[in-house]
């Protein structure tokens, strides 16, 4: 097993190999190259127009949490990353396994600007601290760090200009926005009458997303992260979070 120093060196080498610079030095691309994303005010990151109403200031601030337990949460994460990556900013997903990059691309994320970094256990904290120096946004599971490590990483990321996106498997206090998928409606499957398995092909999902902001305000929006349009109720399977 690699030592903590080796992990930090590996993460730093990754940042250098990707040609990363400090996020505060990056200049977002014009709106026309951002897939319709509006370029928000300084100190926030570009997001797509459908995500903007869910975030204070219509852009991604220093810390955002996504409730990891809900169906459709990964689709929401990929859509959140679509804005900054298509604006030319480097982002990374750290320590999340069993995820599929093609789903991120389907939601609009630019895979040429999105790194997937495999780490586990105490290595996640070392890698996160190294990568926060060079990324525009970093996604990592909240349960991978102790509360003290979480506070230290949050402070470092704010100084470096890196937005943290917590895959919230454990509550993270003080985030700028907390996004929670309240319901997911999948389009494409036909009725399961007389069959053990469903029939058809999933081709879109509608998410009902609730946002709670640190200011006490919030928002409720419906998103179609993979495109598509509402269909007749007989062609929609609804999953609502209790």
Describe the structure using short key phrases:
single chain, 242 residues, alpha/beta, Rossmann fold, nine-stranded mixed beta sheet, 5 helices, 24% helix, disordered N terminus, disordered C terminus
Number of strands: 9
Give the averaged pLDDT, no decimals.
79
CATH fold category name: Rossmann fold
Structural class designation = alpha/beta
Q: Which SSEs are present, and which pair or pack?
A:
Layout: H1 4-17, E1 63-67, H2 73-86, E2 91-94, H3 101-106, E3 114-117, H4 123-131, E4 137-141, H5 147-160, E5 163-168, E6 177-190, E7 199-213, E8 218-223, E9 236-240
Parallel strand pairs: 1-5, 1-6, 2-3, 2-4, 4-5
Antiparallel strand pairs: 6-7, 6-9, 7-8
Helix pairs in contact: 1-4
Question: Any overview of this molecule?
Answer:
This protein is α/β, with parallel strands linked by helices and about 240 residues long. The chain has one domain: P-loop containing nucleotide triphosphate hydrolases (Rossmann fold, 3-Layer(aba) Sandwich), CATH 3.40.50.300. The protein is built from five helices and nine strands. The chain has helices spanning about 5-15, 75-85, 100-105, 125-130, 145-160, and strands spanning about 65, 90-95, 115, 135-140, 165-170, 175-190, 200-215, 220-225, 235-240.
Summarize the entry for a quick read:
With 242 residues, the protein is α/β, with parallel strands linked by helices.
């Amino acid at each position: 097993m690699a030592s903590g120093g080796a992990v930090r060196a590996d993460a730093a080498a990754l940042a250098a190999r990707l040609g990363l610079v400090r996020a505060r030095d990056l200049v977002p691309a014009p709106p026309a190259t951002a897939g319709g994303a509006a370029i928000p005010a300084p100190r926030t990151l570009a997001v797509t127009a459908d995500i903007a109403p869910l975030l204070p200031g219509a852009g991604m601030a220093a810390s955002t949490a996504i409730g990891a337990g809900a169906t459709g949460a990964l689709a929401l994460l990929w859509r959140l990353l679509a804005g900054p990556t298509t604006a030319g900013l480097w982002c990374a997903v750290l320590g999340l396994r069993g995820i599929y990059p093609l789903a991120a691309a389907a939601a609009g994320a630019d895979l040429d600007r999105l790194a997937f970094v495999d780490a586990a256990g105490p290595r996640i904290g070392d890698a996160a601290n190294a990568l926060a120096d060079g990324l525009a946004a970093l996604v990592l599971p909240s349960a991978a760090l102790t509360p003290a490590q979480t506070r230290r990483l949050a402070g470092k990321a704010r100084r470096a200009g890196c937005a943290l996106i917590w895959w919230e498997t454990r509550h993270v206090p003080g985030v700028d926005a907390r996004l929670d998928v309240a319901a997911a409606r999948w389009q494409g499957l036909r009725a399961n009458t007389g069959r053990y398995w469903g029939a058809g092909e999933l081709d879109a999902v509608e998410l009902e997303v609730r946002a709670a902001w640190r200011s006490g305000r919030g928002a409720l929006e419906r998103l179609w992260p993979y495109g598509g349009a509402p269909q007749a109720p007989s062609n929609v399977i609804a999953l609502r979070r209790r």
